[in-house]
Structure formats: structure tokens, C-alpha cells
Amino acid sequence: MDGLRTLGEQVRDCQACRLARGRTHAVPGSGAPDAEIMFVGEAPGFHEDQQGLPFVGAAGQFLDQLLQSIGLTRSQVYIANVVKCRPPNNRDPQPDELEACRPFLDRQIALIKPKIIVTLGRFSMQLAFPGTSISKVHGQPVRIGDITYYPMFHPAAALHQPRYRTFIEQDMLRLPALLEEIKAGQQSSPTSSSRPEQLSLF
């Protein structure tokens, strides 16, 4: 816990990229320091910037519903973003901004040691699924080292395009069984006969 607290202070003091100049609050992350499941989104939005907490806007409310659907609350998982400060007008994070923030996320992962990292949206998906499309790999877990990465559409996608809501809900419902498989030592890297190139990424 002390490690995450110290890291949070470093995030709030960070001046490593241009996003620091426009933020109200940096948003390190929140949740259980020993969470088995870690959710990683893209970047803070307006409400997150105001409150200094991740996923507190409309997308966050949907995430709360998704967690409730599998019997979990925020206090039982850890939630963070690849970028810790809000980009102006919620634009996409730039490559140098992602690079500046990456050490913070790497440190969070090292401290929390989650069994599963759920990547929410295309920017966090690049942690484990570079060069592919979220529409092709969502719901398909891949194990890298001791961590299983599980790509999902960002909850905000369901707010803007309702057709994604079913995909998100179904992918979330698979999480408990995936976690149990991992804990039982039965998890192996899933493959897809239609996309064998996934194997070459790792």
C-alpha cells in the first residue's frame, strides 16, 4: 500500500509531459492494492480530472454495473489508465504522452501483481495486443509471463454506440471463470485458428 501511495504522489507531482499544464488533478488510480483483477483504461475525462479518481463519469457508472454483474465492487479490483492526466478536450493521447506515463503504469502492475489485466479500449489494448484491432481480439485472453491480458471494448463505447453494449457485457461475464481457471493452474494461452498470427506477437 505504501508503494502505491508513494507512486500516487509521484503521479500528482509529475511534469513529464504537456498534459501536466492543463490538468486539474492527476488521476493515479484506485482500488485494492492486492487486486486479482486490474482494469486499465485510456485517460481521465472531465469528471475524473475534477475529482482525481478514475472512471467516475458515465462510463464509470457503466463499469460499476458491469462489476456488479459479476459480484464485484471497485474496492475489490484496481482501476487505472495508461495516461494519468486528461488530454485537452478528451483528444487521443499522443505517443510521447503515452511514453511519459508508461513507467507509472508499469510500476502499478509490479506493485499490485494482478492475475488479470482487463484492457479497456484500444490504447490500453496496445499493452499486450499491438498492431491489431479491438474488434478482432476483444474477449480473447492472452497470457504474458504471470499476467493474463483480457481485451474489452471501453465502457464509453457502449454509451456512444449501443451495439457494443452486448459485447462488453458478455466479455465481462466471462471474467470470473477465467480467473478461476488461472487460479486453478489450468490457464493456457488461448489460440484462434482464424488468427494464428496472434501467437507471433508474444
Report on the structure:
By secondary structure, the protein is an alpha/beta fold. The protein has one domain: 3-Layer(aba) Sandwich (Uracil-DNA Glycosylase, subunit E), CATH 3.40.470. Strands 1-3-2-4-6-5 form a 6-stranded mixed beta sheet, with helices on both faces. Strand 5 and strand 6 form a beta hairpin. The longest helix is centred in the middle third of the chain and has 18 residues. The protein is globular.
What keyword list fits this structure?
6-stranded mixed β-sheet; alpha/beta; 202 residues; 43% helix; single chain; Uracil-DNA Glycosylase, subunit E; globular; disordered C terminus
Please outline what is shown here.
This protein has 202 residues and is α/β, with parallel strands linked by helices. It is built from 10 helices and 6 strands; from the N terminus they run ααββααβαβααββααα.
Structural class: alpha/beta
The whole-angstrom Rg is 16 Å
Percent of residues in helices: 40-55%
Number of helices, counting only DSSP H or I runs of 4 residues or more: 10
| CATH hierarchy: architecture | 3-Layer(aba) Sandwich
Percentage of β-strand residues: 5-15%
In total, the number of strands is 6
Shape: globular
What is the name of the CATH topology?
Uracil-DNA Glycosylase, subunit E
User: What is the terminal-to-terminal distance?
Assistant: 31 Å
